[in-house]
Every structure is written in C-alpha cells, then in structure tokens.
Specification:
The protein has about 200 residues and is mainly α. The chain contains eleven helices and no strands. It has one domain. Helices cover about 75% and strands about 0% of the residues.
C-alpha cells in the first residue's frame, strides 16, 4: 500500500465536510460517547459508496443526469433539514441533560444517512480507488476492498479525534448561553453551505 494513497486519503478525511460537521456538533451537544457513535455512523455510511464504485453503480450516477440530480437533491434536502434542526432549542444541538439519554442508535443512523445521501462520495470512489489499483493486479476487487478498509479506518480514527475534541470543550459551551446560540447558528450555516455546495455540484 503506497504512501501516496495514505497521504491522499488523510487529506480527504481531515477536510471539513458533512460528516466532520455532524461529528463536531454531536460531540459539543451530547458528549464523547455520542461523538464516537457519530464517527462510527459516518464511517459505516461510506460502505454503500464503496459498493457502488466496485459494482459500477457509481458509473450510472456519473453518466445519468437524472439519477445524479435526484440523489443529489435528496441529500441537499436532508442537509437543510439538519440546518433547521440545529437551530431548534430541542433539535440536534440540544445540550440539556435529557439529550444525554438520546439513543446512540439514532445518532448513528443520522450519521449514516448524512454520508449515504451524498452522490459525490460514490463518484469520488469511482475516480479515486482505481488510481491505486495496478492494471496487472491479479485480484483488483480484493485490492479495492483492502484500500477501502484502510480509508474507513482512517475516517473513523480522525472523526473520533474531532468528536472527542469537541466533547472536551462541551462544558465551556454549556456554561455560556451566548456561545451556544452562536454555535447553533454556525453549525446551521455550515449545513446550509454544504447543502448549497452539493446543490451546485456537477457530475
């Protein structure tokens, strides 16, 4: 496994995106355990895109404008919903004590959906993985699966780091209502910006 793959993957993983924003928001609002659940969900959400790339479904998204845009706008709508939810007092960034009781499964499912509803991920894997698979590779599928596993592991580790950092400053945020208000607005704005970026994305 080449160092080029590891470096490229790391740059992609640490770059702010919907998964990073959600994991940070979860760490700030619900603490360390929930942030790990969010990181896990974001990682699991990569699997369908890997399967699509390996199975050729990503090529359909790439060549079919209708399929791509239909999938894309579902993702945009979900990001806008996340923005609205972030602004609500009892929404995604609720930091009351009761929020700690929120199901970790619900956090995980939300994180999975955030990553699944992004057609650019499928196209990314369609363009990204083959670059690191030699034309003479005797088992290209196995090679792509092993590279994908490394990418997922790196995603989980980095996202957990993001989430635990956010959780570590949670008490300071909770004790300052004005910071909490601006935090809600910031994350809502981030989800809107990511939604607009996805809406304007070309195949």
């Amino acid at each position: 496994m080449g160092i080029e793959f590891l470096i490229t993957s790391f740059i992609i993983v640490v770059s702010p995106g919907t998964g990073v924003v959600y994991t940070l928001a979860t760490g700030l609002s619900r603490g360390a355990r929930a942030s790990v659940a969010a990181a896990f969900g974001c990682t699991i959400g990569i699997i369908p895109h890997i399967a699509a790339a390996i199975g050729g479904l990503a090529a359909i998204l790439h060549t079919s404008a209708l399929a791509f845009h239909a999938f894309k706008y579902v993702g945009v709508a979900y990001l806008l919903y996340m923005a609205w939810n972030a602004l609500r007092e009892k929404g995604a960034l609720n930091v009351d004590d009761d929020s700690q009781e929120k199901s970790l499964m619900q956090v995980t499912i939300t994180a999975i959906l955030i990553n699944i509803l992004n057609p650019k991920l499928s196209i990314f894997f369609l363009a990204f993985l083959p670059q690191f698979v030699s034309a003479t590779e005797p088992q290209p599928i196995i090679r792509m699966l092993s590279l994908s596993a490394v990418f997922m592991l790196m995603t989980f580790v980095v996202f957990v780091g993001y989430g635990l950092f956010a959780a570590s400053v949670r008490d300071q945020v909770i004790s300052r209502p004005r910071i909490l208000t601006w935090m809600r607005r910031t994350f809502a704005g981030a989800f809107v910006a990511l939604g607009l970026k996805l809406a304007l994305a070309d195949r």
